[in-house]
Sequence to fold (439 residues):
Amino acid sequence: MSTVKEQLLEKINNKTARVAILGLGYVGLPLAVVFAEAGFKVTGVEPDPRKVQTILNHQSHIKDVPAETIDRLTSNGKLTATTEFSVLQEMDAISICVPTPLRKTGDPDLSFIIDATDKLAQYIHPGMVIVLESTTYPGTTRELLLPRLSQNDNLHAGENFFLAFSPERVDPGRKDWTTHNTPKVVGGITQTCTEVASSWYKQALQTVVPVSSAEVAEMAKLLENTFRMVNIGMVNEMAIMCDRLGIDVWEVIDAAATKPFGFMKFTPGPGLGGHCIPIDPLYLSWKLRALNYTARFIELASEINTNMPRYVVGKVQDALNQQSKPLKGSQVLVLGAAYKPDIDDLRESPALDVMGLLHQKGAIVSYHDPYVPHLQHEGLDYSSVLDLNQAILSSDCVVIVTNHQCYDYDAILQNARLIVDTRHAIGNKGRHNSKVVSI
Ligand code: SAJ
Fold:
């Protein structure tokens, strides 16, 4: 008589295990696709009916997932979507890919994880494997999910159901590293949980990296993104120090980057945007505060990065002052609103803070971003200027905040009266040009 685990592994290995992905966002939909491509019947369970309808209409709402892929997989019956959690009673393998934002207070917002888990708990049955992918603090899988999923006395993790954590590593827009080929860390509540979850993921992902526990997997993700946040904070402070010393920080970084080992290049900027890097490390520092420990690197880096928009506005004010122009009443054009080049994502974008601070100080603010036609944020309500050249010619100062590749930086250098360049977008041509101020 085969055990529950053996029966589940059999269904995983012959691809008859029914797969459900909770949350069809930039993580969930690509994950649903790779399991469907591997031969599983996959059901996306998504609370937003518009997203569900898009899938059922053989379309895609995620830029990295082509509509043709959704059309093929929905047409051949490998992929479907619903808002109904009740389908989970028929499922065997479930991945939870829901948002983990911060509250206004800066504390983690675990409501999406709790809501998805409580709904799943209504339909969990012996023989199920469940993997949490949402970035969260170490201990979430064991402390928050396990009790909620084990309420039924006959359910025991590692015996008749299996629970693990596997951090998402989706970098929207990236083509070289995808959900399929990016190595995937998997850590279970028990060793058997790790084994079963890894067996499932190995059916669809190129490289699976089992680790000894869910906590190791949760912490690995936080190390990955804390590494970036702290190094960005460090290089932003380098920019401030070089400014005090009258040294070109960009030349310093380029010189340091010639070291072929033991160095990784990061560059200063107007602040830290995105849905991962500025947020994930704060889940870790929040958890450690509850254990009476202050994660000083994270808190210091967050303080420096958060202050960069104010530092940029100070540079604008000083640069205008050099031309005997008060910031108040000056026309200031912000180039680039998205949080990083060549995308349309505004989440946590420092450009929003820069524009808000300029507005507060009385500047006449406009912006241009070919990927962001309109923006509304904390009282700001702007549309991207239609005639970029005219806007540059009529501005007292142009602030390059996001260095989209599509901009003609030579033309900007020629036509602008004054440029504050937060991304070294003008490059060396601006190095000895009195109208270019670099951060
Ligand atoms: N930034 C700097 N200086 C740098 C690098 C980034 O100021 O040297 C700024 C960016 O302008 C942006 C923010 O930091 O505002 C975050 O930039 P990012 O390059 O880290 O981009 P993200 O937020 O899209 O990070 C994602 C992450 N992917 C996941 O979390 C799954 C990250 O782990 C990836 O390393 C990163 O993409 C990447 O490499 O592109």
Remarks:
- Residues 168-171, 224-225, 228, 232, 266-267, 269, 272-274, 276-277, 339-340 surround SAJ (CB under 6 Å).
- The first strand starts at residue 19 and ends at 22.
